[in-house]
Amino acid sequence: MDTAPLPGTDLAVSPLCYGTANIGTDIAGDDADRLFDAFHDAGGNFFDTAHVYQAWKPGRDGASEVALGAWLARRGCRDVCVIATKGGHPSMKHYRTVDRYLAPHRIEADVDDSLGRLAVETIDLYWLHRDDTRETVEDILTSLNREVKRGRVRYLGASNWTVERIEQANRLAADNGLAGFVASQPSWSLGQKTKAPGGGMVAFGPAEAAWHGRTQVAVIPYSSTAQGYFATAGAKGQGYDNDVSRARLARAQQAAERLGATPNQVALAWLRAQPFPVYPILGTTKPDHLADAVGSLKLKLTPAQAQWLETGQGEAMA
Fold first, then answer.
1. Are 79 and 121 in contact, with CB atoms under 8 Å apart?
2. What whole-number distance in Å separates Cα of residue 267 and Cα of residue 309?
3. Rounded to whole angstroms, how far apart are CA atoms 291 and 301?
């Protein structure tokens, strides 16, 4: 993998990002290191974690940040890695209980925790994990920019925010000389979810794609492989099992056969063929699955081929 600048920043990132939501408890120590090593050895330098990760296990909130920070220290590769983490997540079982999770003191406290767990002085890309419309974008940006000015955060991202709120925030930032959001992190893949997302998560569809195409704000999607739907011929990722996804899976299988690839690689290549910057997050915990995902970088789809995979219209694979 070659690195290139993330638009709107001076961060040189790999075209794929490694997500650590499943690392820190059951997968930890040497097992976690092997996965991080495999991604890094393949040229990957972009890692994504979160304040809340592993909090679904009692007393383990932040375990993923700790595991990633420990690996960075052991390997001595902090200077060449780009570290993204997320704060501002609503309360949940086994997690800290707060009401206004994007209040200034809460943002500051989450940054404090993440810096300590990662054992770093600066977070390269800091995401807000959810939006909270009880807080104005002005107040949120003021809190975040305080962290930028303190040197604790370099760039800002919005996860599970609507494009309307991102646009509002970025317009306010531009008008007032503040740092705005350089990227969005939605749940997005070639698969289509059967049910609308809940829990403060935001759907990504044609309107969102059109906005990103117009603004060129980067998308760094999680669940980029539809939770294994394309890798297992629909056996996993049952939340995506519907007529639309089945048709897309069939086309991805057809394309994979003709391209000498796997359907999962085709699905990842589809994301990277969009008319705006996309850096898919890989959440796999299997070395062979990680190698398969990295292999997707050898595929370059045309816009017409990407349209055909999504809609069945346009240029089918020759």
1. no
2. 9
3. 20
Q: Are 217 and 276 in contact (CB under 8 A)?
A: yes
Q: Is 299 helix (H, G, I), strand (E, B) or coil?
A: coil
Q: What is the pLDDT along the chain (318 residues), one digit of tens a residue?
A: 999 999 999 999 999 999 999 999 999 999 999 999 999 999 999 999 999 999 999 999 899 999 999 999 999 999 999 999 999 999 999 999 999 999 999 999 999 999 999 999 999 999 999 999 999 999 999 999 999 999 999 999 999 999 999 999 999 999 999 999 999 999 999 999 999 998 899 989 999 999 999 999 999 999 999 999 999 999 999 999 999 999 999 999 999 999 999 999 999 999 999 999 999 999 999 999 999 999 999 999 999 999 999 999 987 776
**Cα torsion at 179, 101, 210, 224 (round to 10°)?**
110
CA 191 to chain CA centroid, nearest Å: 16
Could you give the CA distance from residue 307 to residue 247 in angstroms, rounded to a whole number?
Answer: 13
In angstroms, the CA 105 to CA 113 distance is: 12
Residues 6+ apart with CB under 8 A from 62: 24, 51, 53, 54, 55, 113, 114, 117
Phi, psi of 48 (to 5 degrees): -125, 130
8 A C-beta contact, residue 165 and residue 181: no
Q: E-strand spans in 134-236?
A: 153-159, 181-185, 218-219
- How far apart, in Å, are the Cα atoms of 38 and each of 224, 227, 289? 19, 20, 11
Q: 3-class DSSP state for residue 297?
A: helix
Length of the chain: 318
- d(C-alpha 243, C-alpha 194), whole Å: 9
Of all helices (H) and strands (E), which one includes residue 160? none
